[in-house]
Amino acid sequence: MPQVKVENVIKRYPMGEKELTALRDINLEFEKGEFCGIIGPSGSGKTTLLNIIGSLDTPSEGSATVLGKKVEKLSPKESALLRRNHMGFIFQTYNLLPVYTAYENVEFPLLIMNMPEKERKKKVMDALEWLGLSDRANSRPAQLSGGEAQRVAIARAIVKQPELVLADEPTANLDAENSHNILERMVRLNKELKTTFIFATHDEKVIRYLRRKIHLVDGAVTKDEVVS
Ligand code: ADP
Ligand code: MG
Questions:
Q1: Would you say 65 and 145 are in contact if contact means Cβ atoms under 8 Å apart?
Q2: Less CB within 10 Å around the terminal CB: N or C of the chain?
Q3: Contact 159, 102 (CB under 8 A)
Q4: Which residues surround ligand 2, an ion (CB under 5 A)?
């Protein structure tokens, strides 16, 4: 069974008297270990689709099965648990907690899982090391560069070794060097831990790393290509 299956998904948003159709009959499957992206211009529906896969939103019609669960059937509590236990999220803005250190930001998802301290500490140190941040553990977000802050956000997303990582425009605020740096690290995580990565992006610096490109135009898939 695919890890993610999107079937006949339509998403409409109310817009005054009318409606805006953000997704038009999307059908897609994602296998474990993919490194792929939903690509397309701004407003094409990338975030809407990624949020449905991440159970942050539900379709107006159709169905999305993620890790064996139909997201549209989950209660808010069930979808929160699905996200907490099995998914990592990376956003354009790093969404770090400003009063916490890098270490504490990465530790946060493990604290809410009630993981014992010893195990927690090891996982946090490992994640920081994976992202080349061991020497920044005690820095707060304001003391970090954009590239470092995004690497902390990635460490936080992968610290519990989720099956699935969703990254929405993760390089939007990064220069070429930092973009390259984080993509190389994500490729390595994908290879070594078999973590599935699904990006939403229109950044060429990301797109050239993808092994599968799903093109979205005006809410519809126009091309789904596997890069050999
Ligand atoms: P992308 O991520 O590709 O830029 P989005 O998924 O954010 O595209 O948006 C797709 C379309 O849906 C856009 O026209 C956007 O204005 C609209 N849209 C997105 N979210 C909402 C919302 N919460 N309410 C109303 N319209 C929305
Ligand atoms: Mg978007």
A1: no
A2: C
A3: no
A4: 46-47
For the entire predicted model, the pTM comes to 0.95
Residues at CB less than 6 angstroms from ligand 1: 13, 20, 22, 40, 42-48, 200
The whole-angstrom separation of Cα 3 and Cα 217 is: 24
In contact, 199 and 3? CB cutoff 8 Å: no
Q: What is the pLDDT of residues 45-95, one digit of tens each?
A: 999 999 999 999 999 999 999 999 999 999 999 999 999 999 999 998 889
Rounded Cα distance between 10 and 27, Å, is: 10
Cα–Cα dist 225/214, whole Å? 6
